[in-house]
Amino acid sequence: MEFFSNNLLSLMMIIPLLGSALILIIRHQDKEIEKRNIRQVALLATISTFILSIFLWVGFDNSSADFQFEERYSWVGDISYYVGVDGISMLLVVLTAFLMPIVILSSWESIETRVKEYMIALLLLETLMIGVFTALDIFLFYVFFEGGLIPMYLLIGVWGGLNRIYAAFKFFLYTLLGSVLMLVAVFYMYVETGTTDIPMLMNHEFAADVQNWLWLAFFASFAVKMPMWPVHTWLPDAHVQAPTGGSVILAGVLLKMGGYGFLRFSLPMFPDATEHFAWLVFALSIIAIVYTSLVALVQEDIKKLIAYSSVAHMGFVTIGIFILNTNGIEGAIFTMLSHGIVSGALFLCVGVIYDRLHTREISRYGGLSVNMKIYATTFVIFSMASVGLPGTSGFIGEFLVLNGAYAYNSWVAFGAATGVVLGAAYMLYLVRRLVFGELDKDDVKAMPDLTLREKLIFLPLLIVVFWMGIYPNSFLEPIHASVENLIQTDFSSAAEHAEGVTTSAAAAR
Amino acid sequence: MTGDIPSLVPVMPEIMLAIGAMVLLMLGVFQGDKSYGQVSNLSILLLVAAATVLVTKVGGERQLTFGGMFVTDSFAVFTKILVLTGSVIAILMSGNFMKQHKIAKFEYPILILMATLGMMVMISSNNMMTLYVGLELQSLSLYVLAAMNRDRTRSTEAGLKYFVLGALSSGMLLYGVSLVYGFAGTVDFDLLASSLKGQESTSMGVVVGMVFLMAGLAFKISAVPFHMWTPDVYEGSPTPVTAFFAAAPKVAALALLVRVLFGAFPGMIQEWQQVIVFISVASMLVGAFIALVQTNIKRLMAYSSIGHVGYALVGLAAGTQAGIEALLIYLAIYLTMTLGTFGAILCMRRSNGMVEDISDLSGLSQSNLPLAIGIAIFMFSLAGIPLLAGFWGKWYVFLAAVEAGLVPLAIVGVLTSVVGAFYYIRIIKVMFFDDPAPAFEGGQGNGISFVIGVSALINSPVSYFILIAPLVSAAGWAAQSLLF
């Protein structure tokens, strides 16, 4: 047991790797049996990882702001294999582990070609994503952060839609371009401090002008990953062309890396620069919220619409992060978790009807509430969660961010709040066109309702959406200590500024 | 009078190669071209034996011999091992190709031996004379190798181009040497270093001489603006010869450049650093942008090697021990990537002969998955994506540059690596996303499969975590010997 809890994070990364190694050697004369075995191994590996992540959550000490489940082995020179989680990263790890079995299940029938490579890429990606959220060595972080490009590039390029090659290239080069600038900043930090250890880098005070440059370099990387306006254009392409499983991972996990990066690097390591550039982030975020929401309104393609809505939601997250008070940051993390579940679920919903009709055009559907009752209900619930209806997960995050934003500056809050209104507009418009209206197309009439496998996929997502919406404290408590610590050590002056409102809101909770 | 006989221990590997090459030449002459296989195998044995002697008998102690003209130290041992590895692999990969193209002449392995000998002398030179002798021995062998397939116009054209431009560069180099000698009064590296060190301002003649010298060497490493010959020679030469060109001579010439700059001109770092920074940036830019429009994979690899020389020079531009260490790490990794890639190119054979277009790789993942995975590993590694060995090389050179205060150089470097990534992942796209073209014929022999397999394994994530620590410590050991 001692060994188990001491190496929990490494185990979570190794199990998917072992799974992919096992898949590599699976051979059977009957191709159908071979595919079935491959799928089962992949599912087993991801479920085991998810079970471990539950241990992680249960064993996590909510009252501590320190890194927990630490493991450290020296590697090359000053670089070490050093992993651990704190309140900011722990639930993101759980989210990753939670979504992966669902992704595997969703690809059960829709991926028929090159199943072996597909599952290997997914499992490899899981290892790398968990690595990103748990790495406490900046070199290790960069390796995981960047290494994830390879499987994702292949996922989009091999199993994607018609225009997949363009999308795969755009995805790869955009994100690579952002990250290499961060790499130079990493070199600089390593040269100045002589360490790649993230907790030690957090305690180091960089000179003010240096901070600005380093902040901008990290910003280039995280803004692309996030994605923020105007470097978001890779996302709609990648989302539309990726297979359903790939879209779920993109929306559910990969988009969280940007926000996580801001919280792990930009804020604690460059606090002065963070305050200095906050206006820039707010401006870009508000533009993103308003602009992409308007763009989402006129989309004809379901996946593109949801992709643009993701950009808008991420605008919310960046605002929450950079208002630098407890409510804002907790709200941002909560929004990331909620968006991971909800947008993942929405892409799965699209996947369900895409598997039946092989088109993503909104106008080809309509009236699904007549012949696909369960599907329609599910879709409406997730749409409402995306809009932020009270009682669903989306509400809590938006509320906390708006609350924090109001304490910081009412104009920022105003800008963010327009997103709530516009979000309701485009989602309701989508629901009206897709689920309601006349059921007049013959091929749409012939579509069967959810199968048992599909129901099984959506059930856990529905439970989590309501759980997060009705009793958010199970998710906010692990986050709290680390966020408080972050604000206390680096932004005490900013925190005082908003103290009155923060404490009253905390008391209300 | 025993004092007059120089110690032969430091030159033992070179003497072995020289005598061995002569013996094998005799063997070949008497037996004719049917002895190709035998001579090849014996050459490999000879190279391995030379490496063994180098490690066990010579060792990493700094030793001078022949009146200070010849030096061995840990730096020499490290780079010589790389050169010997490159040569062994080049011979190993050639057999079937040479037979299929009816150019399996016994001179081929012997010329490689001669070139290798020249490279080892270059690496160990401690005097302009040794430098020139080594360089010319290497170059003359390489000119002949390029024109090996003499019945094919492109091969003879490659050989001729290489020879004419190479002779020009040798001329520049000699002119530089004569200027340095005229103004400094010596050609010995140690004496040059000590006479140039104390001076307030270096005389213009020495600076001009050094720049000419560097221009001559830049030609050998195909750094921009002396890179013009590279694409044509790479494309025209028989592929195994190209594989040899891309690996061992690059390592040797870069090592020689390091040796000259740190051995003879350590006091003039201000002067040569500017030149190195310029050719490094120019090489990275040309290597990245011109490669974008290539359709022939050998030409692509030529531009890729120009770019990689640029990255390696970033380490040299830093002018520090960490920079040299980075350069050596980079060279070692580059050697495995490039030899593996050329091994894969040697597998591109259809019934009507070798094919060299990138489009011929279409859908390779469906017709030959192991080969496609191998090439994918090399491409991602060449692009410097983390999880593959190439990233380590980039990490160390750019780290050294930032450490030396050359942040703009590092920024240019990482940005060009993004441009480079475009054409590397385009090859992966062709292999994995496009519809399959007819499959390649098999039967390239176990040698090539072995080379591809081993170098893919070295570059793969599996050894990413394991092999790097010993490599870094070996490179550190080698770099410390350069008089710091």
Task: Explain the overall architecture.
- The complex is a heterodimer of chains A (509) and B (484).
- With 509 residues, chain A is mainly alpha-helical.
- Chain A has one domain.
- Chain A contains 24 helices and two strands.
- Chain A has a two-stranded antiparallel ribbon with strand order 1-2.
- In chain A, a hairpin with a 2-residue loop joins strand 1 (68-76) and strand 2 (79-85).
- In chain A, helix 5 (115-134) runs antiparallel to helix 7 (149-159) and helix 11 crosses helix 14 (302-322).
- Chain A is globular and about 65 Å long.
- Chain B is mainly α and 484 residues long.
- Chain B has a domain at 268-484.
- Chain B is 74% helix and 2% strand.
- Chain B contains 20 helices and four strands.
- Chain B has helices at residues 12-31, 36-58, 74-100, 107-123, 128-146, 153-184, 189-197, 204-220, 229-236, 239-263, 269-289, 297-318, 321-346, 364-367, 369-383, 389-403, 407-433, 446-459, 461-464, 468-479; strands spanning 63-65, 70-72, 349-350, 353-354.
- The longest helix of chain B is centred in the middle third of the chain and has 32 residues, at 153-184.
- Chain B starts with 11 loop residues before the first helix and ends in a 5-residue tail after the last helix.
- The mean pLDDT of chain B is 88.
- The interface between A and B is medium-sized, with 32 and 31 residues.
